[in-house]
Specification:
Layout: H1 7-11, H2 24-30, E1 44-46, E2 49-52, E3 55-56, E4 59-63, H3 66-76, H4 83-101, E5 106-110, H5 119-123, H6 126-146, E6 150-154, E7 164-166, E8 169-171, H7 177-182, H8 187-203, E9 209-213, E10 230-231, E11 234-235, H9 239-256, E12 262-263, H10 273-278, H11 287-298, E13 306-312, E14 320-322, E15 328-330, H12 333-343, E16 347-354, H13 363-371, H14 384-398, E17 402-405, H15 429-445
Parallel strand pairs: 4-5, 4-17, 5-6, 6-9, 9-12, 13-16, 16-17
Antiparallel strand pairs: 1-2, 2-3, 7-8, 10-11, 14-15
Length: about 450
Amino acid sequence: MQKWTTTARTLALCAIALSTLGGHCQAAQTARTDGAVTKSDVLSIQDGKFYLHGKRYVEFSFNKFDVFWQLWELLKDGKGDTQEYRDMAAKQDQSLRELHEMGLHGIRFFGAPWALVDFRPIFNDPAKRASIFYKAMDTALDLCDKNQIKVVYDMGTADFTDAQLTPTGWKQGEEQLKELMANPGSRSRQEAYRYVDEVVNHYKNRKTIMMWEVSNETTDSADIMPENNIYNGQRMPSLLDVAHFLNDVATRIKSDDPLRIVNNGGDHLRGCQWNQYTKHGWIRDTVDEQNKALDLLYAHNAIDVIDIHYGLNYQGVAEPVKGPDGKEASMNVARYVEAAKRIGKPLMLGEVAIQLVARDDTAASKKTYQETPDAVGSYWDPNAAKWVKAVCDEIVDAGPQLVFWWTYSSDRPQDQTEPSFFIKKGRTDAVLAVMMDANKRLKAKYGVKTSPD
């Protein structure tokens, strides 16, 4: 969700907590099934490599985050039996068909509405849960099936706080991110568990879902203000709290669905992540200290796949740290791959992007284009392909097996104006050619053939 640009925007994704959910067993019994789901039908890990349908699985694909969101919004607004809803479903179908025609077989998407603001009253009502949430999700998954696309399903469990959206902004409630992530007995955590039980049991017999994801970019909230861990009035968790939360929710998902593997949901680490946690200060980490933070998060828990979200700015430094020589270095893809191998879990890049800056009259924009005249504000900019190729080359050289670029064919108007992460066949063909070449090269690196089916 364009989260390279601002941590504040990420942290604004707070949510109203769910109250008690009923009908969990009944929903699981009435959900559509695809027959017996076996380990071969979902993504698995063998000797550190991904496998699907008994074959090694390597892919450079895309986020298609809005395939469910757009349908949800229309159903929520009472537009399910309208031409507008049918047209939106057709748009999603076309985008998924385009991905299939490019030889892609998987996407990453968000399985919970934006910030859950309107989610609680609908999900708590069995009739509305079926007619709005499950109808939208069923349509999204059916379209994926039609186009032979499997999904990494992000569950959004970190959004279950008591925040209220008011006319003047977010108002924090009694239970905040600290309580959700640090206290397994908290009301918000228990509500998140009931949501997980409901949804996972409802959909675990759908072969469409290749992997579950705990939540999006939970590490962004860790020790965000190390002096007191309070940001914009919200109590924030520590890095250890986030580690426990990821482990606990992954364990809960697996108790409901033992077949599927689970990833954390990103993000990359801030360049001072370890020192914020241990010394409560904005002190730049060394590479070794970054590795300590990664070990704390992922080495000894139920997370199966380490998901990093990665972006490259125009200086070529994704997240500055101190190298072995004491000079500025980057936590680049190669370092993350190396860390994942040491931990013993495969790495995926759940979101990848280049820096995009709208060309306007703001001071930040003028500074960027003065320093880097060939900077870009969108993927349809003629200069974009070379910046994309630089990231693709880095990814292929480092060799993570699963990559999802941000983002393919969002139908939201705000995603089609600069700075725009919109990628679409017929609009950004030069960039798509670079990415599909990277897909071929990445597959070839692991001896996987590229085919349209």
